[in-house]
Amino acid sequence: xxxxxxxxxxxxxxxxxxxxxxxxxxxxxxxxxxxxxxxxxxxxxxxxxxxxxxxxxxxxxxxxxxxxxxxxxxxxxxxxxxxxxxxxxxxxxxxxxxxxxxxxxxxxxxxxxxxxxxxxxxxxxxxxxxxxxxxxxxxxxxxxxxxxxxxxxxxxxxxxxxxxxxxxxxxxxxxxxxxxxxxxxxxxxxxxxxxxxxxxxxxxxxxxxxxxxxxxxxxxxxxxxxxxxxxxxxxxxxxxxxxxxxxxxxxxxxxxxxxxxxxxx
Length: 265
Hints:
This protein is α/β, with parallel strands linked by helices. It is built from eight helices and four strands. The chain has a single domain (10-184, 240-258), classed as 3-Layer(aba) Sandwich (Rossmann fold). The protein has helices spanning 15-24, 46-62, 81-84, 88-94, 111-131, 146-160, 190-199, 230-253, and strands at 27-32, 65-66, 136-141, 167-171. A four-stranded parallel β-sheet has the order 2-1-3-4, sandwiched between helices. It is globular and about 55 Å long. The termini are far apart.
């Protein structure tokens, strides 16, 4: 008989299940990501699918509960393949969209206003999660640029709380295991594609890539995508989970040390 997966997704659980799991380990996990081009071989939700599944693995191994992922809300003019890539016109063409949909100003508000809206949304979500009884929150940024937003929101949230404060720690995954893998972090290349191959199998179709291995793959950071494998993704996932486990243990053990001003997040 196959091993039954541990239920860790907050929204899928009954109150008694939530209380038992929270009291055993008062840690919450919040996946944030985006919808963005990740090559023709990957789903556009790769960032969020990846981090949601990764944090679910963390919760299964470490304890705690995973909150529903946030797929969008960030500004659509910075750090987005459709808007900023050198091959953005090719991406728009293959998505059957006008390239002007990603031009500066299309979102009406300024980039700064959009960023502040997103920051406010994250802080609001942090307060909501704290109200549900957690001592530590791990924010996983599946879209790497969102790590800056998560850290900024954590700093503001830290100032707004009364004690005891819920500690917020933000990560994206690859920076925790840098130097252990090659590549370690990329956009739709071997790293990301392999992670999703392991974490959410069946989402890719490598056969749609160009037959010529020397041809640039539109909207990817590397051509090593053909080397992608679930085995590589599994090894990377397990290393990240171990690193998160170590950090969460430290935050829970030394919770009182993170209550003052300027506490390292």
